[in-house]
Amino acid sequence: MNPTIDLLNNHRSIRLFKKDAVTQETINTLISCGQAAATSSFIQACTVIQVEDSSKREKLAEYAGNQKYVQTAPVFLVFCADMKRHELACDMHNEEMLSGFTEQFITATVDCALFAQNVAIAAESLDLGIVYIGGIRNKIADVSKLLDLPELVYPVFGMCIGYPDQTPEVKPRLPLPVVLKKDSYSNVQDSELLADYDKVIRDYYNSRSGGNKDMSWSEQIAGMLRKEARPHMLDFLKSRGYLLK
To answer: Which UniProt keywords are given for this protein, alphabetically ordered (predicted)?
Structure first.
């Protein structure tokens, strides 16, 4: 329909990058684009750590589940939800910051996600590729210590950026009627639509893996959701000053 919509619909995760460097000027531009994202009540609660130190990259790759591209990608960014500067803002006006509210956790985390998605879109518009790395939350306390993150700051996810050295297929998304509801929520037709979607995803995985992965979307989700989902996160977030109220 237009180049922007084409760009958005052509998104795919890139895990293999060329060795070509990404200039600091380009990185600065991407971060500026992130700052232009919508922000709840203008809190601007995202801080980005650009990790260049090779030993830290190696550790982060390990913490993320031995994802080697964390170590080898030309650029690796860690996006952090950050309410620390808001504490400073209160101090500047001799006000006590009332922190620990669940709403603050939500708004800071959403701010961070919106910021990062702007970075991703800007990167892809420059023919760069990206992949989000939620795996850093596997060892979130270790990541925080490695990056010297203070209280009221937590790492939400990482992002690898570089020039793609692969052209994976675009992964088919859920059927629109499953996602878009009108006036009220109804999932009457969702089971039938998901059954059809399962066939599409099974074909996609078979094609992408050369027949080595035979799985539908619902099988993948059922397998994932019968396991614990990083149960350490709640205690960690409370230790950082989040989700206390």
So the answer is: Flavoprotein, FMN, NADP, Oxidoreductase
* In a shared domain, residues 209 and 118: no
Q: Which single residue is written with the structure tokens 């078979």? A: 206
**CA 33 to CA 3: how far, in whole Å?**
18
Backbone angles phi and psi of 192, in degrees to 5: -65, -45
Percent of the chain surpassing pLDDT 70: 100
**d(Cα 55, Cα 76) in Å, to the nearest integer?**
13
Alpha carbon distances (Å) from 244 to 67, 102, 152, 154: 33, 7, 12, 15
Report pLDDT for 168.
93
- Residues 20 and 82 occupy one common structural domain: yes
Which residues neighbour 1 within 8 Å (Cβ) at sequence distance 6 or greater? Answer: none
Give the pTM: 0.95
Look up residue 46 and give its amino acid.
Answer: C
Task: Give me the count of residues in the chain.
Answer: 245
The answer to whether position 244 is within a domain reads no
Cα 224 from Cα 191, distance rounded (Å) = 19
Question: In the sheet that 75-82 helps form, which strands lie side by side, from edge to edge?
Answer: 46-50, 75-82, 153-162, 129-133
Euclidean distance between CA atoms 137 and 109, whole angstroms? 14
Token pair in block for residue 174:
């859920």
